[in-house]
Structures are given as C-alpha cells and as structure tokens.
Write a structure and sequence with these properties.
This protein has 168 residues and is α+β, with helices and mostly antiparallel strands. The chain has four helices and 13 strands. Helix content is 27%, strand content 29%. The strands form five sheets. The chain has a five-stranded antiparallel beta sheet with strand order 3-9-6-7-5, covered by helices on one side. It has a two-stranded antiparallel ribbon with strand order 1-2. A hairpin with a 4-residue loop joins strand 10 and strand 11. The longest helix has 20 residues. The termini are far apart.
C-alpha cells in the first residue's frame, strides 16, 4: 500500500512541475502548453526504427512519456506493448518522429509508438503523400506520391493535364 501511495505522489509531483514549467516547454520555435506537449499520439503496434537516445525500463507508459519530456532531444518514443517478467516495459527515447522518418516506421507485434505534437499531426498531405515536419519553422512540406502535385498533393497530374487540354 505504501508503494502505491508513494507512486501516486511522484506522479502528482511530476504533474505539478510540468504545469509550473508549462510555458517554458518548446520543441522548435513554437511555444506549447504542457497539456499539448504531454498529449502524445499513439500508433499501436508500430515501431520507429531509428537510433535510440536511451532505453529505460518503466512501470507504465506515463513514466516513459515523462522521460521523453525531460529529455530535450526526445521527439517520440517506442514502448513495449507487453511487460517483461518483472512487470516493466522497455521505453526507447527517440531523437525524431515518424513524420521525418516515415521510411523506417514499421508495424510491430510488440511495440507501440508515441509522438509529440507535430506540424504533420493533422495529416495535411493528401493522396498517400509523406508529410515532412519542420519543427524549427513550425511548418511542414508534403512529398507527393507519383502522379500528384500541389502544396498538399491534392492535384492529380492527369486531371491537371486534362484541364490544360480542355483550355487549349
């Protein structure tokens, strides 16, 4: 019972610290509230296969999220979907996100991936385009799939050619 009380006290203390520091939390140049930064987006049974900043074993996903927030270079993390024999989860802190590394973002039977807010979070790119986040400028660019163009890859090139021929 004492452990549970102590465990909840540490969560409360961490929450108070992050609320007090909330106005100072940034990723790139855009200032974000604590709630927004702590709002990690989960991609279940997914894994971002990039070089890890550090790996730690944690009792739950909240601890992994706090570890990422405390590490300024952390933009996302991979978390084991299932605990080990000691009831711990492997937490891998990552220096980038799934938007800037979409070619290494894979499905996984044993991990979930969590990313912080990103300019790409709203999925602005259309037609299977890849969104590339630019945190420094709080912006993004869409890398269009073959056959599409436009700021959000919303224009099919064949349709564009057809419209151009109609005007001639």
């Amino acid at each position: 019972m004492e452990y549970k009380v102590q465990h909840h006290r540490s969560y409360l203390l961490m929450a108070i610290i992050f609320i007090c520091l909330g106005s100072a939390l940034t990723r790139g140049t855009r200032r974000r509230s604590t709630a927004e930064v702590m709002d990690f987006k989960a991609k279940q049974f997914s894994y971002l296969n990039i070089t890890v900043i550090t790996s730690v074993f944690v009792p739950d996903g909240i601890e992994c999220g706090f570890a990422c927030l405390k590490t300024i270079s952390c933009f996302s993390y991979n978390l084991n979907a299932f605990p080990d024999v000691n009831g711990k989860l492997l937490c891998e802190l990552l220096p980038s996100d799934m938007y800037n590394n979409s070619d290494t973002f894979i499905t996984s039977p044993i991990f979930h991936h969590f990313s912080i807010w990103s300019p790409c979070s709203s999925n602005p790119c259309k037609n299977n385009a890849t969104c590339v986040a630019n945190y420094k400028d709080d912006d993004y660019q869409c890398a269009c799939s073959p056959g599409y163009t436009g700021e959000h890859c919303e224009i099919g090139i064949l349709k564009l050619l057809f419209l151009f021929q109609v005007q001639i």
